[in-house]
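Dear support,

I submitted the protein below through the web form. The confirmation email said the job was done, but the results page showed an empty box. After a refresh the structure appeared. I'm attaching both so you can tell me whether what I see now is the final result or a partial one.
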Amino acid sequence: MCGITGWASFHQDLRRSTPVIEAMTATMALRGPDAGGVWTGAHAALGHRRLAVIDIEGGAQPMADCPEQPHVVLTYSGEVYNHHELRERLRSSGHRFETRSDTEVVLRAYLEWGDALVDHLEGMYAFAIWDERRERLLLIRDRLGVKPLFWAAVDGGLAFGSEPKALFAHPELTPTVDADGLREAYSLLFNTGPTVWAGIREVHPGGLLVLDRDGIRERRYWDLAANPHTDDPQTTKERVRELVDRAARSQLEADVPLCSLLSGGLDSTVVTALVADELRLREGPQARLRSYAVDYSDQAEQFTGDVLRTGHDTPFATEAGAFIGTDHSTVILDPRTLLDPDHRRAVVVARDSPIGVGDMDTSLYLLFGEIRRHSTVALSGEAADEVFGGYPWFHNPEALAAQAFPWLLVTGDAAAMPLNPELAARLRIPEFRADTYRSALAAVPHLDDETPAEHRQRELQHLSLTRWLRQLLHRKDRLSMAQGLEVRVPYCDHRLVEYAFNAPWAMKNHDGREKSLLRDVGRGIAPDSVLWRPKNHYPATHHADYNRGLQHLAREALDAPHVRDIADETVVKTALDTPTEELQWGHRLRLERVVDLALWLDHHRPALAL
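What the results page shows now:
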């Protein structure tokens, strides 16, 4: 996994701009701590920071087909899991390989198939290809949007990067936030395309962008489609098991230490069990997969359930690790370390956004830091809830009936920053939400013979996969890469997503519980306690000292420059005045938001065009 950046312009000779591409590349150092490189041509400059995972010696980038006089140059981030099969196909077509890296496979695939290479790749990736022969820049992002890719127009072309901070190292681009950006950030609708930053856009998941002398053109090469499901229930169970099994096992390859995130929930337990089994098949019966969970020093004694959490994770994770046979560790965090300004600032800088989930982001960042001491790659159970229908809104009659984005009903307005009333009136977020919801539903594919219940479930699954999931993937990518850790997500395998999306809801819910099809996969490879455990979200601390410290940080944040221009001081003070022992989840999240806002404004010092 790596960080990529660069730009192309037909109005200047970029061979004279090496310091600029070097500065842009330097912003990606945390994503790629092992090596860095740049390439410049007359009208393109590419940069790369490398986290070496496959072919440590041979995968240096940017990579050219002919180093002395290149026709094609690639800067690439990600993992293509079927690179061995593609390598053999390309060899049979006459291609010769100099390395074992999947990077070279992507490069040769473009030489063989052009833009149609996207139809052959399986994995998570974001990359840029400059074609000297055609004076053409190609940007491509994986189907589910696991890996990020941002771009902005500049004189005579465009600049791009794995993160917005790379773009801000370009002399023509400065961090500016306008009303549209704040509306995108604080509506919590997770649109793909526009960002909180004026002029900065995302390449769409499953998207392809081309720049040449005719201008900029975008298109989608993949999207979710509605197709008839013809398999019977037993065949469906077997097919899902096969797809999950293949996705998990195919993502084990690495030339560096690899581990699994094991929370004690169904999703991560299934992935861990399959990968642990594959490791034993490859390396012998004594091979043991490392697995990790996170907990807080107060959790065993002070766990308190809330709208998102029904139980304490650690006992289930420990039992699952023993059942599977992993070398399991629980990273215990002192809740007070989550208040450390350096940790919180690192998280906000990694996100390039004021929107996060406070202590849960900081603890995930610290967890990844501990894991990185022993492993470079981790497998995660992210996306199973979206793929198999695990969230409450798939089962809650109120959510099923409501004409609104379902997560807003679960988290409520407590999840949003209470905005300054004057600003809130200008942003008109309720109207924006309503308009966006109608547009989002119009994009959902349907079959003519769907029942009303199936129709609604397809809508909720599409919204979850194309919006809610994307912000979770951004979170995991940014916080892991800030620690130099690659996280893989087998449930984002596009064939699994396509198949599950079209399986009837009655099959996804056949035992009357959430994620029935995934539970079928888990039978025999996960302990019964985990198989039948209710959905539980990422853990949060309940320590009184954390609540007290958070209130202190929020008081300071309110006095920081420009915070009151965005936040509603009155609402924040209500949470500040709440006794520590009575501070509920909604109050806490409001305080977390204002602390993050102050840190974000202080670090980026954006021009506010409000």
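Response: this is the final, complete result; the empty box was a page-load delay. Residues 264 and 420 are 40 Å apart (CA to CA).
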